Structures are given as structure tokens and as C-alpha cells.
Amino acid sequence: MKRIFGIILLILTLTTLSIYAQTKTESKPKKNLETKQQKEQEQKAQLKEKKNNEKITDKKAEKKKKRYQKKPVKRTELKKIDTKSKSKKVIFDTPEHKKRKYKKSYKHVPYKKKKIVQEIHYHNPIQYHYTVPARYIYRGLWIRIYIDYDNGFYFYNGYPYYVYHNVLHRYSDDDPGEFDLVDSYTDKVYATFYGNCLRQSYDRCAEIRDILNEEAEDYRYFCAERFEYDPEYHYGWDPDDYPDWYWY
After folding, report:
1. Where are the domains of the chain?
2. pLDDT digits over 111-123, tens only?
3. CB of 141 within 8 A of CB of 226?
4. What Cα–Cα distance (Å) separates residue 220 from each residue in 40, 88, 92, 197, 210?
5. What value does the mean pLDDT of the chain take?
6. Which CB contacts under 8 angstroms, 24+ apart, belong to 197-200?
7. Residue 82's closest CA among 163, 150, 214, 178?
């Protein structure tokens, strides 16, 4: 009897194990199928999100392109002026660079007082150029002395100046001199202005400078006195120390 009972128990155990093994084997493919479907759904969601991001990026790029698109520059006929080289012309194609904020409202207004009485005189431009530190000689060619003053006429250290964009320009009624109108994009001289004195030269230069800058919608052109270098004079500095100077 015990033997029969043992055989029955063994058969039941084997049957149970067989059923359990079969159930586990069948559940694996089902689980794998669910995992595969889940991955496919995730991939679809990622692809959809990527497409949406690309659309947003394209819209932003299009807006940016429209914002920075060049506007055509209107040309204005300029007054005839005497220059050293009549072949010099304005280059209207501007390079890509960040422009300073241009204010159309400001234009040069010549000083109204008929006669300026000054304490210091330089009867020859080079006498003044001897006094200019090297750090104020732009490219070794033009004098650009910076000062924290607003635009307008000033006496500075007993000498008359006209300030434009924090740069001093000699503005004497008595002292001779000339001003170059310089294209800051190319460092080329557009015109050189002469007068009976520095005041006349600067007024003529500033008038054309403002016209050109208004066309370019930028402070592209500037007036500057050309620096005269005297090789026999001891300046206290060496041109070889300034490799960015054009005549180095």
C-alpha cells in the first residue's frame, strides 16, 4: 500500500513539475513580445520628438536669418571736394561685423564763435605731433586721442578741440593742418581736407563724414589728423615696438 501511495505521489510531483516548466516556457515569448512592442513605441516617440525639435530649430533659424538680412544701402550724391587722389571712392560693401549703435540725430555743428583765442600755438603740425604719445597714434598714421567728454567744442590744456565720439580733434583758428577722412573698415583714406586753419579743415571733413555714416548706418568713417614722423627726433618710443603700424 505504501509503495502504491509513493508511486502516485511521484507521478503527481512529476506532472506538477512538467506543467510548471511548460507554463514558464510559454510565458517567455509573451514577455519578449511585450518588451519588443514597448521598445518600438519608445523609438516612435523619440522620432516624433526629434522631428518636432527640428521644426522648432528651422523656425528659429529662419527668424534669425530674416532679422540679420542685409538691407540695401541708399546712396546719396556727395558734394564735390578736393582730394589728393580723385580716384578714391567710397566702398559701400561692408564686412560682416558687429556694428555700434548708430544715432542719426547727431550731426556736426561748427562752433559759432567767430574767433577762438588760444594760449598755445603750433605753427607747424609736426611741432604738435612731437607731443603725442605713441598709444594715441592709430596704425602709425593718424592721431586719435581719446577723452571722456561729450560731443562738442572744448578748451583742453589751453588748446581748442572739437570732441566727436570721445576723440579730440584740433580746432584752431590760427594753426595750420589738414584732416583725413578715413574708412575704418579698410583703413583707407577717402579724402583729405585742407583749409586756412585746422578749424576749417575739420568742419569740411566732419560734414562729409556725417553724410557717409548716415548712409552706412554706422560710425564707419572718422576724421583724423595724419601723423608726421620725424626720424631725427627722439620721441621716447620706438616704432619697432608697434608691429600693427602700417609703416613698421
Report:
1. 125-241
2. 888 788 888 999 9
3. yes
4. 59, 16, 10, 25, 10
5. 77
6. 197/172, 197/173, 198/170, 198/171, 198/172, 198/225, 199/110, 199/111, 199/116, 199/160, 199/171, 199/172, 199/173
7. 178
